[in-house]
Write a structure and sequence with these properties.
Helices cover 56% and strands 9% of the residues. With 501 residues, the chain is α/β, with parallel strands linked by helices. Bound molecules: flavin-adenine dinucleotide. The site of flavin-adenine dinucleotide has 25 residues, from strand 4, helix 16 and strand 7. It holds the Pfam family Pro_dh.
């Protein structure tokens, strides 16, 4: 099933490029040549050229997606207290020396001293934690979901878990995920858009590596048979990285096959609990060494559960990978052929440094696009392809991004297709506490918007908080727009209050 004829894949991408070109406003021959050349050199279609389409948006007021001038309308659902807290946290986070000092303290041996540790954790709890984390447990997270729901947003609940290394830790993690899925049943219907699942929490990482190795070997060697393999969709394209598997892997042992069965069972238990409340699940993408096994399990669950026109299991595609576009097209087309509705979350990808470092150490080409711009083009191309697909055929799309240009491009395209919040085909998603202006702008423009809600006790979510601190530091960080607009709205509210007093 995963074996795909090279000619078929080539024709598929080429015809996709032609169709994508037809639906974009990019008219110049040069742009079309670029798109065609990109496709024939195994890059995903560069069809929607960001600069050209952004100009179209800017020049056409009727198509305007965001209104950042009217901060009153933008932050209408945010209390002044919350706005002050968010603006203060983001402004402190933007001060590089302050963040560097905090990161140093957090990683120092001072944290071993009980009293000092308690003071630091309490400070973090009332600042960064309250801003970026939805709560310590399902009860607090439920309160956050209700607040978001009242302001026209939904939540993707994400219990902060680390990789599990054995069956015992997988069982524990699964219990937490089942509890998380169960908690959504006491919340307003539709207020939770997805339960986030990490396959590394339900299947031991060593087994994900073994399965990924065997799937790669099977793709390259048609004589290789995998008796345990279930129905799936294409997992690779010709340009996928195969350097992780340089020699023939041993078949799965009887014990490994049993462990794989246990992993299916755990995923099934989480899905069953989530679907009791009609909440779909979204499976996160991780690094390329184990991603084939993650895709395999995602597609296995898709075949099992995606019966209605609305997919209940979503996978994740990382647009920073050179093979992302081809794999997306192959999987979607194969799913259409089988009558299977599939859902994808589209992200840029979070493992850039480790992927590049590994490829470099092996002396092979990095699987990551050579430039940021290539990643942006791939993201926008994949988004355009999927918007076209979900508007004309079955399927669902989550656009997980903080990139304003990508959000604008996709929103304009979706509007052109008549896709709105009620269509249930598209959800924009961003992390809790990030890209607030974009979030409210998309909501006000009539789109479905979710916040990704990591939760857990302070010490458990510390690695997540450190990543957010790193991402938001510096005056030019991605929180720049939020900081400016929040300050503008705070000043406006103060003026209005003073003029009434
Ligand atoms: C709701 C949500 C869910 C997510 N789930 C996942 C997940 O399951 N798996 C996962 O891996 N990530 C996930 N992420 C993280 C995501 O992949 C990005 O790291 C993050 O969102 C930043 O990308 P951006 O689209 O917001 O855009 P931007 O901030 O504009 O782009 C930054 C991204 O561009 C890419 N990039 C930067 N420099 C280069 C370069 N030189 N060459 C090539 N590419 C470059 C990197 O991917 C980087 O993260 C998720 C993010 C969100 C918001």
């Amino acid at each position: 099933m995963a074996m795909v004829n090279k000619d078929v894949s080539y024709k598929l991408v080429k015809s996709l490029v032609r169709r994508a070109n037809a639906v974009t406003t990019v008219k110049s021959n040069q742009a079309q040549r670029t798109a065609f050349n990109a496709a024939t050199t195994n890059n995903f279609p560069q069809a929607p050229q960001p600069a050209a389409i952004t100009e179209t948006i800017a020049n056409n007021d009727g198509d305007k997606i965001f209104d950042f001038e009217d901060t009153k309308a933008l932050f209408s659902s945010v209390s002044t207290g919350k706005l002050l807290h968010s603006a203060a946290t983001l402004n402190v986070a933007a001060m590089e020396p302050m963040v560097d000092l905090s990161l140093w303290v957090m990683n120092s041996r001072l944290m071993d001293v009980g009293l000092f540790r308690n003071v630091v954790l309490a400070t973090i709890k009332h600042t960064a934690y309250d801003h970026f984390v939805a709560g310590a447990d399902t009860v607090e997270t439920g309160q956050t979901v209700r607040r978001l729901w009242e302001s026209g947003l939904r939540g993707i609940v994400d219990y902060g878990l680390e990789h599990a290394n054995d069956n015992e830790s997988c069982d524990k993690a699964t219990q937490q995920l089942i509890k998380t899925a169960e908690s959504t049943q006491s919340l307003p219907p539709s207020s939770v858009s997805f339960v986030a699942v990490k396959i590394t929490a339900v299947c031991p990482v060593y087994l994900l590596r073994r399965v990924s190795d065997l799937l790669r070997w099977e793709y390259k060697n048609s004589s290789c048979k995998l008796p345990w393999k279930q129905q799936t969709l294409p997992i690779f394209s010709e340009s996928s990285p195969f350097y992780h598997t340089l020699q023939q892997p041993a078949p799965l042992t009887a014990e490994e096959e049993r462990d794989l069965e246990l992993a299916y069972q755990r995923l099934q238990n989480i899905c069953d609990k989530s679907f009791e409340g009609n909440v779909p699940v979204v499976i996160d993408a991780e690094d390329t060494s184990i991603q084939p096994a993650i895709d395999y399990m995602t597609y296995w669950a898709s075949f099992k559960y995606n019966k209605s026109p609305k997919p209940m299991v979503y996978g994740t595609v990382q647009a920073y990978l050179k093979d992302a576009g081809e794999r997306l097209v192959l999987a979607k087309k194969a799913a259409d052929k089988s009558g299977l509705p599939v859902g994808f979350k589209l992200v840029r990808g979070a493992y850039m440094s480790s992927e590049s470092a590994l490829a470099h150490s092996l002396g092979v080409e990095s699987p990551i696009h050579n430039t940021t711009n290539d990643t942006h083009n791939c993201y926008n191309g994949c988004a355009a392809f999927m918007l076209d697909e979900v508007s004309n055929r079955s399927g669902g799309l989550i656009l997980a991004t903080h990139n304003l240009d990508s959000a604008k491009l996709a929103a304009q395209k979706a509007r052109g297709y008549g896709i709105t919040k009620d269509s249930q085909k598209l959800e924009f998603a961003s992390l809790y506490g990030m890209s607030e202006a974009m979030t409210f702008g998309l909501r006000n423009a009539g789109f479905g918007v979710s916040k990704y809600l990591p939760f857990g006790p302070v010490d458990q979510v510390m690695p997540y908080l450190l990543r957010r601190a790193e991402e938001n530091k510096g005056l030019l960080s991605s929180s720049n727009l939020d900081r400016q607009l929040m300050m503008k709205e705070i000043k406006r509210r103060m003026k209005a209050y003073m003029s009434k007093a």
